[in-house]
Design goal:
The chain is 43% helix and 17% strand. It has 375 residues and is α/β, with parallel strands linked by helices. It folds into 3 domains: 114 residues, Nitrogenase molybdenum iron protein domain (Rossmann fold), CATH 3.40.50.1980; 89 residues, Nitrogenase molybdenum iron protein domain (Rossmann fold); 140 residues, Nitrogenase molybdenum iron protein domain (Rossmann fold). The termini are far apart.
Length: 375
C-alpha cells in the first residue's frame, strides 16, 4: 500500500480533516479503517466520525456502511463532509456516485496523495469560500487544529485588530461555516504555509517587524483603522525584549540552535533568535517543501533517523521543534514549536503570532537556555 510522503508529518487526509473540522456546522466522516480515523482524531482533538470499514467491506464494497454512518450523524443545520482515505481510493470505489443522491461534501484526499498542507487547502477550497466586498473586517488566515498554538494565535490577532478598531471577519479554519461565503476582501496570516488565498493578503504576523509592516498596510487600506495603539505596543514590548536579552547575554554565550517545523514558523524563530540573542542558527529542518531563505543550512527533513543524525552532527545547545527532536537528546535546551508535543499538559492558549507570540517565544528560549546553563 502506498505510504504517506513524510513519516514525521501528517498526510493530506489529515490536512483535509483539519480544515473542515475547524468549522462549526460541519460533521466530518473519515471513510476508512479504524487506524485512518484514530490518527487524525488523536492529532486534531476534533469530534470526527468514522466508517471503520472492515476486511469484508474492502472486498465487497463499503457503500452500505458509508450511507449508514451518514444517516446516523446527519442533523438539521449541519453539513456532512466525507474525507476519503487510502483503502477506498486504492480499491477504486466510486464514492461520488454513492453520494450522488445525498447532500454531502466529498473530499478525495487519501494519505498517499501528499502532505498535510495540500490536503488542508483542498479541504478548505471544497467549501468554495467567497469574498464579500461589503465586509468591513479582516480575515485571519493560516489557522489549523493541528497547530498547538492556533487558539492563542486567533485570540492574539483578534486582540490586536480590535485595538486598531478593525473587526475580525472569517478565521480560516476555525470559525462558523456560514462565514466562509462572506469573507472580507483583506486577510492577515499567521502561517504562510497554510495560506488560503482568500482575500488580498496584507502581510504576516510572525515577528515584530512583519507585524509592524502588516499593521501599516492595514492603516493604508482600512480608512477607519487606528493602528497607533498597536504600533506603540510593538515598540514598548520590543524594547523590553531587547533589555531582557541583553541581560541574558551579559551572563551567557549566545545559543547555538537548531529549528524544526513549518517553514514559516522556523524562519520567524531563526530571525528572532539572531536579532535579539545573536544566536548561531546551526540548521533549519522544515516539515514542508517551502525552504526559507536564511544564512544557514536548510533542508526538508522527513525521517526520524535524519533528525537524529543532524542533531548529532551539529551539536546544538538549543533545539526548537517537536517531541521527535527532543527525544534525541533530552539534556539539550528545548522549546516546543511543532506538533507533536507529547508529555506536556497544555491548557493555556499561547500564541506564536503577534506581540504576545514573540514574548512567548523569547521567554521560552531564555528559560530553557538558563535551565540548561545551570546544570
Amino acid at each position: 500500500m502506498p505510504e504517506c510522503t513524510n513519516p514525521l508529518w501528517p498526510c493530506a487526509m489529515t490536512g483535509a480533516a483539519a480544515a473542515l473540522s475547524g468549522f462549526d456546522g460541519i460533521t466530518v466522516i473519515i471513510h476508512g479503517s479504524s487506524g485512518c480515523y484514530y490518527y487524525p482524531a488523536t492529532l486534531l482533538h476534533a469530534p470526527l466520525q468514522g466508517t471503520f470499514i472492515m476486511e469484508e467491506e474492502v472486498i465487497f464494497g463499503s457503500e452500505e456502511r458509508l450511507l449508514q454512518v451518514i444517516k446516523e450523524v446527519s442533523a438539521p443545520g449541519t453539513r456532512v463532509a466525507v474525507v476519503t482515505t487510502c483503502v477506498p481510493s486504492i480499491i477504486g470505489e466510486d464514492i461520488r456516485s454513492m453520494l450522488a443522491s445525498s447532500d454531502v461534501l466529498l473530499v478525495d484526499s487519501p494519505g498517499f496523495s501528499g502532505d498535510f498542507e495540500p490536503g488542508y487547502l483542498k479541504g478548505l477550497l471544497s467549501l468554495e469560500p467567497r469574498v464579500d466586498d461589503q465586509n468591513p473586517g479582516i480575515n485571519i488566515d493560516g489557522v489549523s487544529l493541528l497547530d498547538p498554538f492556533f487558539r492563542g494565535n486567533v485570540r492574539e490577532l483578534t486582540r490586536l485588530l480590535n485595538n486598531a478598531g478593525v473587526p475580525v471577519a472569517t478565521v480560516f479554519c476555525a470559525d462558523a461555516v456560514e462565514k466562509v461565503s462572506h469573507a472580507a476582501p483583506f486577510t492577515v496570516t499567521t502561517n504562510s504555509d497554510l495560506a488560503s488565498g482568500v482575500g488580498r493578503t496584507l502581510g504576516g504576523t510572525l515577528g515584530l517587524q512583519d507585524l509592524r509592516a502588516t499593521f501599516a498596510a492595514i492603516g493604508d487600506r482600512i480608512g477607519e483603522a487606528d493602528i497607533g495603539p498597536v504600533l506603540r505596543e510593538i515598540a514598548v514590548k520590543e524594547e523590553h525584549i531587547i533589555q531582557v536579552c541583553d541581560k541574558y547575554l551579559r551572563r551567557f554565550d549566545p545559543p547555538r540552535a537548531m529549528i524544526f517545523g513549518w517553514a514559516s514558523y522556523a524562519a520567524f524563530t531563526a530571525a528572532a533568535l539572531m536579532s535579539y540573542l545573536d544566536a548561531d542558527i546551526a540548521f533549519i529542518g522544515t516539515r514542508t517543501p517551502i525552504l526559507p531563505d536564511l544564512p544557514c543550512p536548510v533542508e526538508r527533513v522527513d525521517s526520524f533517523s535524519r533528525v537524529r543524525d543532524l542533531i548529532i552532527e551539529y551539536r546544538p545547545d538549543l533545539v526548537i521543534g517537536s517531541s521527535f527532536e527532543r527525544s534525541v537528546n533530552p539534556d539539550l535546551a528545548f522549546v516546543g514549536l511543532t506538533p507533536p508535543l507529547r508529555g506536556r499538559v497544555r491548557l493555556a492558549s499561547m500564541p506564536v503570532a503577534g506581540v504576545e507570540g514573540m514574548l512567548h517565544l523569547i521567554e521560552g528560549v531564555l528559560n530553557a537556555c538558563m535551565d540548561r546553563n545551570r546544570k
